[in-house]
Write a structure and sequence with these properties.
This protein is of the alpha/beta class. It has two domains: about 140 residues, 3-Layer(aba) Sandwich (Rossmann fold); about 100 residues, Arc Repressor Mutant, subunit A, CATH 1.10.10. About 40% of the residues lie in helices and about 20% in strands. It is built from nine helices and twelve strands. The strands form three sheets. Strands 2-1-3-4-5 form a five-stranded parallel β-sheet, with helices on both faces. It has a four-stranded antiparallel β-sheet with strand order 6-7-8-9, with no helix packed on it. A hairpin with a 5-residue loop joins strand 8 and strand 9. The longest helix is centred in the last third of the chain and has 17 residues.
């Protein structure tokens, strides 16, 4: 299941507040805690405050939710049996996962700084005030890149469509998949500059508005992965929609 983070977790620059069938102004929040009473408390409290809440009792259940649902933010208990919250937080950060607010029974500075160092955006000690938690969630979501918030929800090009809210890519063959945040950033750059050669540094520069962990070395890997996905769901023949322009960089040329 952990590999699904590379495919579908959503640290979304690709649309804060994106959802599947909820109202577009309700962010998707995932609460991960092994204590059922805490999970239900979070769900009841945040649901009344205009959030859509999903629940998981550990890392494996969290991965299953992320594989199927675009999540805007994760509320994560730091101390759980098996894979603890600190390890999960570090894994999410390594895979460009959603932002994390850490919850812990420990409120001392050492625990708080440790959680923040591992990638949490914020840290709250238990017991917590649900109004404060809701406020901190909104603050974290406001800090995230919002380069595509004001864009049209769906971009269409020669039978393909890309949903900017969910990162859902659909092909002319009516197949679909959900792009990772980094893959979405690459494709979004190419869609804005289709049929125009782009140097590597231009792609990286434009990606930085959408994705804050873009490096020259990772670009080839991202493009290779995106090419495979485009072919998998319906690109015709062996032609790459993302073409290599030798001596320059890349060019996106949709099949007409």
């Amino acid at each position: 299941m952990r590999d699904s983070l590379h495919l579908r977790c959503n640290h979304v620059f690709a649309g804060r507040g994106m959802m599947s069938d909820a109202a577009p102004d309700k962010p998707n929040i995932l609460a991960v805690d092994d204590d059922e009473s805490i999970r239900e408390l979070i769900k009841a409290g945040l649901s009344r405050r205009d959030f859509r809440v999903f629940l998981a009792d550990g890392g494996q259940a969290m991965d299953a939710v992320l594989a199927d649902t675009p999540i805007d933010l994760i509320i994560l208990d730091s101390m759980m049996p098996g894979e603890d919250g600190l390890a999960i937080c570090e894994r999410l950060r390594a895979n460009n996962g959603p932002p994390v607010i850490m919850l812990s029974a420990r409120g001392d500075d050492v625990a708080r700084i440790g959680g923040l160092n591992l990638g949490a955006e914020d840290y709250m000690a238990k017991p917590f005030n649900i109004d404060e938690l809701a406020l901190r969630i909104r603050i974290v979501l406001r800090r995230t890149p919002a380069a595509v918030r004001d864009e049209v929800d769906v971009v269409r090009f020669f039978g393909w469509s890309l949903d900017n809210r969910t990162r859902r890519l659909s092909s002319p063959a009516d197949k679909m998949l959900i792009l990772s945040p980094a893959e979405f950033a690459v494709l979004h750059v190419f869609l804005a500059q289709r049929d125009r050669p782009l140097r590597r540094e231009q792609v990286l520069e434009r990606m930085s508005d959408l994705h804050d962990d873009s490096t020259d070395r990772s670009l080839d890997t991202l493009i290779s992965r995106l090419r495979r996905k485009l072919k998998y769901i319906g690109a015709d023949g062996d032609e790459d929609l993302i073409q290599t322009v030798y001596g320059i960089g890349y060019m996106f040329r949709p099949v007409r």
